[in-house]
């Protein structure tokens, strides 16, 4: 067996490990963050479970930390109180980015982790099977329910050789993205194998597993070996170590070979993480802003390399350099060993350990700016400045570029960039608030601020569904298009009615008003619809606006699950010509859809009433998914099943 199969089979609750089949697995750990977590805990409360049934559940507060009004702080208080009551550990603001902290302090090789954030696969860096999902799926897992997924194909990414000077783990994952594209990983787990793996540290592996999310992959996983053991020992957690790797004769559905010694510094250009070229080829473009941080690149070793590049130098006068160390652990260690002083001395602006600029929470660049960033997504408008051009690189490229003011290949440096892993990380979990002991739940009062509004619930599916094609979209529409998130909107993640006025506005500003005027309708999209974030709001808000179905060429994994979980029909065109045939505002219908789903149909008719044409649409559904769509979503379905 390969490692993915080993972990899946050890957790398998139903189904067979055949790619494409529905399986369900037991979830050992969950994580939530605040921007998806508020909704996830509201949903958990609606399920009526007193105490979480996982081995460990952690709630992180790391996204909405810009407190420009009462909303974020109110949500923080809600999360801190609701988690305390129901058996969840709460990592307070300032403790760091969920994925970085989870890797440092809680992750366990061989365990399953389900997180309400698409970059949960970061845990694959220490041999976890770590999967991103919508908040509702995570709420169900917290309650002890199984996680249902499509059994993935397993791609062996065989690494050989060793990275050359100033070429980083980020360049490895950018190379994978260059080869496979943002939809190349859909339905797959990327399992890293081969002799090159042993040359990579845990944070480097975590960078690769993290950004595997941009492939659309279910997750990415590395073996758990002596490098993992040393990392866990330095975190004072060696006792959770287990050696894990694929059997010598393991088979894979596909193999990709990468010789690390042939790689060069790479860069993803606007506005997609797979728009990759070499730094050398893109050349010395003038740069306005550099951001170093995010869950992809904010480990201790990343930050130490940056400090070394900056030491004794000054940031270019035309560049604003912003650095966000990934966790309190990292920031404290930089403060103690003087590296923070090197960064400050060079003119860097230091942020608290949180997501920050990665999700447009502050530091939006100026109009038309070129911003070089170390995070994982450069989707259109995500930085908070729609006219900005965001590029993604390694920390090394970003740091040297901040000094020169133009995009610079870090191989020109002549300083030692090796940063050994510390023997001992600084361990202080005093910002992690434990829950009350079992049996004391009633003593905790859950605090709800005025920003917390009820979330929409789907209703039972009618036999015939009608609606206009309110919007026709291209390929690769991201969740940042569907439900934009920035400093102005993130505070409203528990307020769906407010968010509704911004739904799909990066595609068409008039969409929310039109959806309201028409009393809802349908959406038409190209391939890979809904890639990116796990935010359930990209389904909840359309649901609130009356969207009944999305007809697309194909869907991204998490978003498709979120649509079904909320009772919205995800239909896939069987013929591209049918997509071409639809014009915006055509009257569409799904005649007899309820009966067809009840009958177990896999192909459905989408009628274009305006044109008088019928299109055949795919919607392969499991029994459980049929149940969810018929009841109007997972919550209704769970209630129905418990009746
Ligand atoms: C992101 O990187 O897009 C986010 C913000 O972390 C999201 C979660 C969210 O939208 O709250 C994600 O990756 O799932
Ligand atoms: Fe936070 Fe950015 Fe990572 Fe999402 S990708 S979890 S916003 S740092």
Can you describe what's shown?
This protein folds into 3 domains: 3-262, Aconitase, domain 3 (2-Layer Sandwich), CATH 3.30.499; 266-412, Aconitase, domain 3 (2-Layer Sandwich), CATH 3.30.499; 465-641, Aconitase, domain 4 (Alpha-Beta Barrel). The chain contains 22 helices and 27 strands. It is globular and about 70 Å long. The protein starts with a helix and ends with a helix. The structure holds alpha-methylisocitric acid and iron/sulfur cluster. Iron/sulfur cluster binds at residues 63, 97, 117, 119, 294-295, 355, 358-359, 375-376.
Task: Spell out the blueprint of helices and strands.
Elements (H helix, E strand, L loop, with lengths): L2 H9 E3 L7 E4 L3 E5 H14 L8 E5 L9 H17 L2 E3 L6 H9 L5 E4 L13 E4 L2 H8 L4 E4 L2 E8 L8 H12 L7 E6 L8 H10 L7 E3 L4 H9 L19 E6 L6 E3 L7 E3 H4 L6 E4 L7 H11 L9 E4 L4 H10 L1 H8 L2 E2 L19 E4 L15 E4 L2 H10 L27 E2 L31 E8 L6 H4 L13 H4 L11 H8 L2 E5 L11 H8 L2 E6 L4 H9 L3 E5 L2 H6 L5 E4 L2 H6 L4 E6 L4 E6 L4 H9 L2 H9 L1
Parallel strand pairs: 3-4, 3-6, 4-5, 6-7, 9-10, 9-12, 10-11, 15-16, 15-18, 16-17, 18-19, 21-22, 22-23, 23-24
Antiparallel strand pairs: 1-2, 2-8, 5-20, 13-14, 21-25, 24-27, 25-26, 26-27
Gyration radius, to the nearest Å?
23 Å
Helix share of residues? 25-40%
CATH topology of the largest domain: Aconitase, domain 3
Q: List the strand order in the largest sheet.
A: 21-22-23-24-27-26-25
Number of helices: 22
How would you state the average pLDDT, rounded?
Answer: 97
The kinds of small molecule bound in this structure are: alpha-methylisocitric acid, iron/sulfur cluster
CATH uppermost class of the largest domain: Alpha Beta
The CATH architecture name of the largest domain reads: 2-Layer Sandwich
User: Segments where pLDDT lies below 50 for 5+ residues?
Assistant: none
Secondary structure tally: strands: 27
* Protein structure class: alpha/beta
Main β sheet profile: 7 strands, mixed, barrel
Strand content: 15-25%
Outline, from the CA principal axes? globular
Number of domains: 3
CATH superfamily of the largest domain: Aconitase, domain 3
């Amino acid at each position: 067996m390969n490692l993915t199969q080993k972990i899946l089979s050890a957790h398998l609750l139903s189904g067979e490990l055949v790619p494409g089949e529905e399986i369900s697995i037991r979830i050992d750990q969950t994580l939530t963050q605040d921007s998806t977590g508020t909704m996830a805990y509201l949903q958990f409360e609606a399920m009526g479970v007193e105490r979480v049934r996982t081995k460990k559940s952690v709630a992180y507060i790391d996204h909405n930390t810009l407190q420009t009004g009462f909303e974020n702080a109110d949500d923080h208080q809600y999360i801190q109180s609701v988690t305390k009551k129901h058996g969840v550990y709460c990592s307070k603001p300032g403790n760091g980015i969920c994925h970085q902290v989870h890797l440092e302090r809680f992750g366990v090789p061989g365990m399953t982790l389900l997180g309400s954030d698409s970059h949960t696969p970061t845990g694959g860096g220490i041999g976890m099977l770590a999967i991103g999902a919508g908040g509702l799926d995570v709420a169900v897992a917290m309650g002890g329910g199984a996680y249902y997924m499509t059994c993935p194909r397993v791609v062996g990414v065989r690494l050989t050789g060793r990275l050359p000077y100033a070429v980083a783990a980020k360049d490895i994952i950018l190379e994978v993205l260059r080869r496979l594209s943002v939809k190349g990983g859909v339905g797959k787990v990327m399992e890293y194998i081969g002799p090159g793996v042993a040359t990579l540290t845990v944070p480097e592996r975590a960078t690769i597993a993290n950004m595997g999310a941009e492939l659309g992959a279910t997750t990415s996983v590395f073996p758990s070996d002596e490098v993992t053991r040393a990392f866990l020992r330095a975190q004072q957690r060696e006792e959770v170590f287990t050696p894990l790797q694929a059997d010598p004769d393991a088979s894979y559905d596909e193999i990709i070979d990468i010789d690390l010694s042939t790689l060069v510094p790479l860069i993803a250009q606007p506005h997609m993480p797979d728009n990759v070229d070499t730094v050398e080829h893109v050349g010395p473009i003038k740069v306005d802003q550099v951001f170093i941080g995010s869950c992809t690149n904010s480990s201790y070793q990343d930050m130490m390399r940056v400090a070394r590049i900056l030491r004794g130098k000054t940031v270019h006068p035309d560049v604003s350099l912003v650095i966000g160390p990934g966790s309190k652990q990292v920031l404290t260690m930089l403060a103690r060993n003087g590296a923070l002083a090197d960064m400050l001395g060079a003119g860097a602006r230091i942020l608290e350990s949180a997501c920050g600029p990665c999700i447009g929470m502050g530091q939006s660049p100026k109009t038309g700016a070129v911003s070089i960033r170390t995070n994982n997504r450069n989707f259109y408008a995500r930085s908070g400045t729609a006219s900005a051009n965001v590029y993604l690189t390694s920390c090394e490229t970003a740091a040297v570029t901040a000094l020169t003011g133009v995009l610079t290949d870090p191989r020109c440096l002549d300083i030692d960039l090796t940063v050994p892993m510390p023997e001992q990380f600084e361990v202080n979990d005093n910002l992690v608030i434990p829950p009350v002991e079992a049996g004391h739940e009633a003593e905790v009062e859950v605090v709800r601020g005025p920003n917390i509004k009820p979330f929409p619930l789907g209703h039972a599916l009618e036999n015939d569904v009608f609606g206009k094609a309110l919007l026709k979209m291209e390929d690769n529409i991201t969740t940042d298009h569907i439900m934009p998130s920035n400093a102005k909107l993130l505070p409203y993640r528990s307020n769906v009615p407010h968010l509704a006025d911004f739904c799909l506005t990066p595609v068409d500003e008039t969409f929310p008003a039109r959806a309201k005027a028409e009393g809802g309708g349908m959406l038409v999209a190209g391939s890979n619809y809904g890639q990116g974030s796990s935010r359930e709001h990209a389904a909840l808000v359309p649901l609130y606006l009356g969207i009944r179905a999305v007809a697309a060429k194909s869907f991204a994994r998490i978003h498709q699950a979120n649509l079904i979980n909320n009772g919205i029909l995800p239909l896939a065109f069987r013929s591209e010509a049918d997509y071409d045939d639809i014009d915006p505002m055509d009257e569409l219908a799904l005649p007899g859809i309820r009966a067809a789903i009840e009958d177990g149909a896999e192909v459905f008719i989408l009628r274009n009433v305006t044109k008088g044409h019928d299109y055949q649409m795919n919607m392969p559904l499991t029994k459980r998914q049929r149940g969810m769509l018929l009841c109007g979503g997972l919550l209704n379905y769970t209630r129905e099943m418990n009746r």
